[in-house]
Design a protein that fits this description.
This protein is of the alpha/beta class and 278 residues long.
């Protein structure tokens, strides 16, 4: 079993995952929205998974950038779910995905502005107070900025400070944003408050033109993203969990394990070396 690297658990490969001897994650990640109130066969499958692996969660619909009030009914369900499955990490997207209680089924960017910092931070603090735990927010991919008055990294650092939350370091998203918006992703990482990194996501993307790549989670990780991952984790004080995301075009289990092993090797080399130096 890997020590640091986990994988998202998908119903698409549920039985293959449980029956395979070829995949050995350190943990699994699930979206609470896909499992809250699920019973019968799939709850029994999840119980089997939980017997083998720690479960982390990555939400889809909290919409911390929304103008709507936080949905307390939904949060109550999330809190019960996290407690039932002993979930140690609850992460969500730094995005806007709901308005007037209508789900947009996309993760839209929040304006990089001081008033947005205050609005989002207040909502994150409300969520944290209700759940009794830190929220781990993800840097999302986006394809156009909206009414920006500050840089993206200034915006993220300001929210981390004001909300006193933690950070999900999505390395592929940083690479995608750097490519699409013309900035150096390593320089971006160097400016981030990495002391708050609690969790890392790694995934693949698709290049659709010479000046556009799309964050798909449907392709293998490319070498430049592995390189950016190594650069990123050298900035951390120590190990954090690393997730391999693969949402569709699911390959054979051994191919997923190959990617996890490659990530694990980078983690081990980086963090073990740092320990020896100290």
């Amino acid at each position: 079993m890997n020590q640091h690297v986990g994988i998202g658990y998908r119903k698409d490969f549920g039985s293959a995952f449980l029956n395979s001897e070829e995949v050995h994650p350190a943990f699994v990640e699930i979206a609470p929205e896909n499992w809250i109130d699920v019973g019968g066969y799939w709850k029994r499958q999840l119980q089997k998974v939980a017997e083998r692996y720690p479960i982390y969660s990555h939400g889809l619909s909290l919409s911390v950038g929304s103008p709507d009030p936080i949905d307390r009914g939904f949060l109550k369900q999330v809190k019960a779910f996290l407690e039932e499955w002993n979930v140690q990490i609850y992460s969500e997207h730094l995005s806007y995905s709901k308005c007037d209680n209508a789900h947009l089924y996309d993760l839209l960017p929040i304006p990089f502005r001081e008033d947005a910092v205050k609005h989002v931070s207040e909502r994150i603090r409300e969520v944290q107070d209700f759940l009794g735990r830190k929220l781990v927010i993800e840097i999302v991919s986006y394809y156009t900025p909206v009414a920006a008055e500050m840089t993206e990294v200034e915006f993220i650092n300001a929210i981390l400070q004001e909300a006193d939350c933690e950070l999900l370091f999505d390395i592929n998203n940083i690479y995608v944003n750097g490519f699409n918006h013309g900035y150096d992703p390593k320089a971006f990482i160097d400016q981030l408050d990495t002391s708050r990194v609690r969790y890392i996501h790694m995934a693949g993307h698709e290049k659709v033109s010479d000046d556009l790549i799309i964050d798909t989670h449907g392709q293998p990780i490319i070498d430049p993203v592995y390189d950016l991952f190594e650069h990123a984790i050298k900035k951390l004080n120590g190990p954090v969990p690393v997730l391999l995301e693969r949402d569709f075009n699911i390959p054979e289990m051994k191919e997923l394990q190959y990617e996890m092993d490659r990530l694990e090797a980078i983690c081990t080399q980086t963090w073990d070396h740092a320990t020896l130096e100290r």
